[in-house]
């Protein structure tokens, strides 16, 4: 317990320190897990471990490929060839987003307080597409959705936009029931045509593998990273580039706080030794670490009010 307290004291100091003026947050799926959304890579519970390719509408060959590499279900080449695996995989997520089925977690609220209480949040880079960060009061321009977001729909080929409500009602109704004997089998989506180019390539505005990141990511990185005093890495495995490049693009003088239930980013240079001069690991659940930090910073009442909203 003393060991943990010493670590927590060090975190609190980092945040309140005068020398720490600019905080950049890099978040991933782990911060939304407690709201009920699975992450991608956790063993047994992550999307890639629980994915059953045989239930996705794809050729047998594609199913076998997806079985070997589940990220292929979210690959641009695969989507252009056959949009259904991606749409099927994301259907409950798309509809859940429209229904606001999930709520911001304590970790989201903690980042909110870096802005409202400390005024030090320069930018929140999130790889998440769940939009939970938009439930906070953080100004939109402080958030970069590195992998796009679910709350809008556009054509992957020509970029034409479609009202998200209309897209969702098509997702809801463009379904053939193929459940048959297998109660777990999902019904089969049908593709959604683009109103402009007529390709069957309408999808939520999420970034697929092997497609470009929003320009905003690159522009903001150039602005933010040279000034960053503290990079907080929360709930991400740091496996996907270029989002993970923030880790080594911040100046050598900036500190890095990893809030994650496993050690991540060692190959990117994060140092988990006790005597590390720039890296600190808050191990365990992000919500718990955020709660502990909030307690030490005297923010618990604010956190409780926010969690009730
Ligand atoms: P991952 O699933 O790869 O990593 C989530 C990390 O959070 C893992 O290290 C988990 O151990 C950790 N974790 C899970 N729950 C946690 C909790 N409650 N508290 C603390 N840590 C927890 O998710 P991302 O790193 O976000 O991209 O994945 C990056 C990208 O890969 C995603 O944006 C997505 C995916 O393929 C695209 O789809 C383009």
From TrEMBL:
* Keywords assigned: Metal-binding, NAD, Transferase, Zinc
Annotated Deacetylase sirtuin-type domain residues: 1-309
| Gene Ontology cellular component annotations, sorted alphabetically | nucleus
The yes or no answer to whether the keyword NAD is present is yes
Domain of life here?
Eukaryota
Catalytic residues, chain numbering: 147 (proton acceptor)
GO MF annotation, one = NAD+ binding
Give me the residues that bind Zn(2+), please: 155, 158, 194, 197
User: Which coenzymes or cofactors are required?
Assistant: Zn(2+)
State what protein this is by name.
Deacetylase sirtuin-type domain-containing protein
Organism source for this protein?
Thalassiosira oceanica
Where in the full protein does the shown chain start and end, and how long is the full protein? 189 to 497 of 537
């Amino acid at each position: 317990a003393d060991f943990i307290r010493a670590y927590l004291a060090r975190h609190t100091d980092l945040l309140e320190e005068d020398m720490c003026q600019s905080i950049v947050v890099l978040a991933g799926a782990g911060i939304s897990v407690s709201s009920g959304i699975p992450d991608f890579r956790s063993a047994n519970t992550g999307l890639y471990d629980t994915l059953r390719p045989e239930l996705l509408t794809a050729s047998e060959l594609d199913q076998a490929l997806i079985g070997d590499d589940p990220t292929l279900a979210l690959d641009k080449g695969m989507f252009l060839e056959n949009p259904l695996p991606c749409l099927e995989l994301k259907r409950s997520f798309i509809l859940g987003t429209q229904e606001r089925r999930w709520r911001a977690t304590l970790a989201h609220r903690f980042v909110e307080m870096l802005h409202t209480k400390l005024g030090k949040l320069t930018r929140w880079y999130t790889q998440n597409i769940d939009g939970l960060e938009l439930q906070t009061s953080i100004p939109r321009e402080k958030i970069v959705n590195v992998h796009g977001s679910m709350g809008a729909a556009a054509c992957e080929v020509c970029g034409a936009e479609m009202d998200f409500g209309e897209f969702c009602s098509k997702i809801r109704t463009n379904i053939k029931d193929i459940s048959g004997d297998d109660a777990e089998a999902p019904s089969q989506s049908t593709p959604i045509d683009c109103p402009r180019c007529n390709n069957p390539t309408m999808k939520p505005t999420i970034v697929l593998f092997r497609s470009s990141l929003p320009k905003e990511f690159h522009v903001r990185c150039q602005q933010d990273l040279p000034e960053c005093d503290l990079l907080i890495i929360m709930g991400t495995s740091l496996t996907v580039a270029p989002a993970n490049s923030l880790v080594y693009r911040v100046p050598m003088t900036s500190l890095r706080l990893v809030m994650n239930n496993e050690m991540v980013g060692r190959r990117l240079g994060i140092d988990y030794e006790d005597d590390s001069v720039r890296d600190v690991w808050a191990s365990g659940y992000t919500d718990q670490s955020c709660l502990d930090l909030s307690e030490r910073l005297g923010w618990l009442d604010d956190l409780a009010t926010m969690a009730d909203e």
